[in-house]
Every structure is written in C-alpha cells, then in structure tokens.
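Regression check, adenosine-5'-triphosphate case 357:
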Amino acid sequence: MHKLLERQIKRHLGDTATVPSELAKFIAAVDDAYASADADRLMIERSLDLMSRELTEANAGLRSELAERQRTEQALLKEKDEQRNLIRKLEDIHSQLLQSEKMASIGQLAAGIAHEINNPIGYVYSNLGTLEKYVQDAFHMIELYEQAEAGITDQEVLSGIQAAKKKLDFAFLKSDLRALMGESNEGIVRVKAIVQNLKDFSHAGTTEEWHYANLHQGLDSTLLIVNNEIKYKAEVVREYGAIPNVECLLSQLNQVFMNLLVNAAHAIQERGIITVRTGCEGEEVWVEIADTGQGIPPENLQKIFDPFFTTKPVGKGTGLGLSVSYGIVQKHHGRMEVQSEVGKGSTFRVWLPVKQP
Ligand SMILES: Nc1ncnc2c1ncn2[C@@H]1O[C@H](COP(=O)(O)OP(=O)(O)OP(=O)(O)O)[C@@H](O)[C@H]1O
Ligand SMILES: [Mg+2]
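Current build output:
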C-alpha cells in the first residue's frame, strides 16, 4: 500500500488491520490512484530533468558560440586597427618621399643652374682682373702723356687736348673708372660665392656619399640661400664654436638647417634675432638655431614633429619640414631637442655624432 494512504488510514480509521472489509475495495482503488499519480509525477520529473539537461547543453553551446564570435570580432578589430596604422605609416612615408624627391629635384635644378652659370662667371671674373690691369696700364700711359703736355708748343694741339679733357671730365672719369672696376669686382666675387653656395647646398643631390664635412660651411651656404626669407624678419647672429668635421650627408643636413631657419623666421612677427650656435661635447657636435619668435604652446610640443602638423594657414605650410628633418637627423644617428616658451622664442638643437657608428 502507498505510504501516504497508509498514514492517512491510520490517522482517520486507526490500524489498517481494523479497517472495515466493505472499504477494502475503495481503499484499493485509492491506492491504485496514488500509485498512478506517483508514476505520472516520476515521469514528469524525468522529462523535466531531461529537458533541463538539454537546455543547459544548448545554453553552453550558445555561450561558447558567442565567445567565439566575440573573439573573431576582436581579432577583426585588431586587424582593422593594424591596417589603419599601416595605411597611416604608408601615407607618412609617401609624403616624406615626395618631399625629399622635391628637395632632390630642386637640388638638381640648383646644381644644374649653378654649373651653367659657373663658366661665364669664371671668364667674366678672370677678364675683369685682366681689364683692371689694362686700365691701370692705360692710365699710366696717359699720365706719361700728361707729363709731356708741358712740352707741347703747338697752341692748337694744346687747346684741342684741354677741350677734350674738359668735355670728357677726365678727372672724374679717372676716379670713377677705379670705383666702377672695384664695384664690378666685388659684385662678381659675390655672384661666385652664391654659385659656390648653390653647388654646396645641392651637392648634386641624390648620389651624395657620406663625407667628413664642415658644418659651418653648410650653415653659411644655407643661410645665403634662405637669406631672402629671413632678412626682412630677423638679424642673424652666428656664434660658431670650434667643432670638428662631421661624417654626414651635408646636403641633407643643409635641408634640416634650412627648415629650422625658415621656421624661425616664420615664428618672428615683427623683427627679431635668429642665433645660430655650434659646439661639441664628447663625441657629438650640436647645432642650435634659436629665435625670438612667438614660441610653441606646450600642448603642441609633442606634435610638431608629426607629418602634416602645422599651425600655418592652408597653402602656407605643409607641416612636413620638421618631420623630414627629424628623419634626416635619425638617419645620421643624431637627435633633435626643442625648448620653447610662448612669447619668448624657441631653440632647436640638433645633435650629431662626429663619426657614424
Ligand atoms: N621656431 C618655431 N617657432 C614656433 N613654432 C614653430 C617653430 N618651428 C616649428 N614650429 C611649429 O611647428 C609646426 C610644424 O613645423 P614644420 O616645419 O614641420 O611645418 P610648417 O613649417 O608648418 O610647414 P612646412 O612644411 O612648410 O615646413 C609649425 O606649423 C609651427 O606651429
Ligand atoms: Mg617648416
């Protein structure tokens, strides 16, 4: 008999043995009903159990699928990030290449022109020297004639000479001719220096090899080239120290100096001073270009070497000057330092090893 039924009979009717016999059939039917309810419950419980197990399994499957999907998504995101970085790097390199290509072709152009001008300048220079000597000789000859003038007795000849002298303003001609020769000489020497500087500056560009070069020469020729950009803005003060020749690609370093000098001039609003200093410490040489310009706000200091970072209006600056310079200095195993105070000015210092490692 079902345990529950047995307990209930005991409670309501006393001992099961004393149950009236006419109830036996009824009790047996109730007992059957209890048993079948139990069986049903068991079956329901089992199927619930089964269902719950299946649900748990499905749930776990879903969870792992989700995790897998998240992993793939993360990997995709990472890949996308890497691609974006790569594209940015490629863009940077591309623009730097463009810039250095531009500089190289400007250099080649300058070298070509310098070469072409060099020859005519050469013979004009040398002819001027000869001419000066001839003029001196001719003057000497005229002086001798002048001394002989006293001996001329023919009044007609004498007055003819004196009239011609007066007409030509011979005294002035004599002194002016000397001044003209001097000025022409000075001019031609200057043109020669410019051509030489152009040649130094470009140094035939692309095929340049590593040489021990005098940085002061590089600075001087670069200063001459950018003089036009600077002269209305600033006075240039040179404070050169005693430095050894440095193993470098001088035309590329000249590019660095040019970028720094032009930036310095741009930073000066009215008029200021650009100081170019050099010095050495241990195995390193430094070149410093300091300006009394507007300075760089601290929040920009981190960005100025980034390609395309510029505070200049559209069309004025490409924002490549410093990034290209940085690249060139790195190629020389050197480094660049900058100090700046808003309203006071900036100082850029380029450190270079005397000897390449
Ligand atoms: N001497 C300086 N004084 C003040 N700001 C400077 C100086 N040098 C550089 N900067 C700042 O750094 C920025 C980046 O300089 P960078 O030379 O790279 O580019 P740019 O001068 O703007 O353009 P460009 O490509 O024509 O050189 C400048 O726009 C300017 O804001
Ligand atoms: Mg610049």
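Comparison notes: The longest strand covers residues 272-281. DSSP finds eight helices and seven strands in the chain. No diff flagged against the previous build.
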